[in-house]
Design brief:
Helices cover about 40% and strands about 15% of the residues. The longest helix has 18 residues, at about 240-255. The protein has about 350 residues and is α/β, with parallel strands linked by helices. The strands form two sheets. It has a seven-stranded mixed β-sheet, with helices on both faces. It contains 15 helices and eleven strands. One of its GO terms (molecular function) is L-allo-threonine aldolase activity.
Length: about 350
């Protein structure tokens, strides 16, 4: 990938003259079977641009899930920058939206003057805070058709949509068939150092290109970073299955400890994200994450010291949950060390039954 970046042919993308950026955008639009694509610095910018383009006027309302990244982790950019209002709909455990709740929160096509317009519905696939779940294709199809009847566009925050495609065993184009626009990240599981891509119709991308400019996302000789994206799409998609397999190994190891205080949902292991529940009265999620990250050894060359010297960085979700994410730089040896460190930390909460903790 770094060699591809070094060798990249570049031009001025401000004028649409960077051949590597153009190649990335063409490759992406073909993969997604959409008319056009736009290279961006980040997925957050992609979601914001999509909301701005789809919403014809300030004060419009965008429907999002209550556990969505757009709502929880994008700084309220819809209101802060675009003058849009986010309205929550309940996410079910698999990341889909509660359709009864959604129907009740869509504004009428010609709303009362007191009401905003519903300008857009956003979904997330895979769903971060629902344990990396891959949304059922049939549900996305049904939602897209339902919204089209009401002239409301559907945007997919597909930061990890290639993980969903690999997990479901389908082309990414099948997942997004009924989505009007999609954002996906090159810099997560695909392993590029920077970049996201927004896809949609020619008209949508033409408008998005203009919004990208005012948000500071237009770049000049961007082929250097676009080359990493081209490499990722050509070489790093199928190997996402390795990350999914590694998540299952870690989840299985946690289950095998038999701990009542550290648990996982065995039915939520679709992709490369693992949510771990921490329910000890004296050891919360912050403690769990801190102990996994901590290096605590003495001078002796022992197996225990090797485990204790392993640093594992995970994210605390709240007081009772942490998130573990696997990626292309995590080797099988790393996974084995992670498992041993997790078992060691679980043993700090309570003694681990060594008979049950084999992996």
């Amino acid at each position: 990938m770094r060699q591809a970046m070094f060798d990249a042919e570049v031009g001025d993308d401000g004028y649409g003259e960077d051949p590597t950026v153009n190649l990335l955008e063409e490759k992406t639009s073909n993969l997604f079977e959409k008319e056009a694509a736009l290279f961006l610095p980040s997925g957050l910018m992609g979601n914001l641009i999509a909301m701005m383009v789809h919403s014809n006027q300030r004060g419009s309302e965008v429907i999002v899930g209550h556990k969505s990244h757009i709502l929880l982790w994008e700084q309220g950019g819809a209101s802060q920058i675009a003058g849009l209002q986010l309205r929550e709909v309940k996410n079910l455990v698999d990341g889909t939206l509660d359709m009864t709740d959604l129907r009740g929160k869509l504004r009428p096509e010609c709303p009362d003057p007191h009401e905003p317009f519903t300008s857009l519905v956003c979904i997330e696939n895979t769903h971060n805070y629902c344990g990396g779940s891959a949304l059922p294709i049939e549900w996305i199809d049904k939602l897209g058709k339902f919204l089209k009847e009401r002239n409301i566009p559907l945007h997919l925050d597909g930061a990890r949509v290639f993980n969903a495609a690999v997990s479901l065993g389908v082309p990414v184009s099948r997942i997004v068939k009924h989505c009007d626009s999609v954002t996906f990240c090159l810099s997560k599981g695909l392993g590029a150092p920077i970049g996201s891509v927004l896809v949609g119709s020619n008209t949508f991308i033409e408008k998005a290109r203009r919004v990208r400019k005012v948000l500071g996302g237009a770049m000049r000789q961007a082929g250097i970073v676009a080359a990493a994206g081209v490499y990722a799409l050509d070489n790093c998609v199928e190997r996402l299955a390795d990350d999914h397999s590694n998540v299952k190994k870690i989840a299985h190891a946690i289950q095998q400890t038999g701990s009542p205080f550290v648990t996982v949902n065995p039915n939520s292991l679709d992709t490369n994200i693992l949510l771990v529940n921490i329910t000890s009265p004296n050891f919360d999620a912050k403690d769990f994450a801190s102990e996994l990250f901590k290096v605590d050894t003495d001078a002796h060359d022992t197996i225990l010291n090797k485990i204790r010297s392993t640093t594992v960085r995970i994210s605390q979700i709240n007081d009772t949950a942490v998130r573990i994410v696997l990626h292309k730089n995590i080797t099988q040896n790393d996974v084995a060390l992670v498992i041993e460190k997790i078992k060691y930390v679980i043993g700090m909460i309570e003694p681990v039954d060594n008979h049950n903790s084999s992996v």
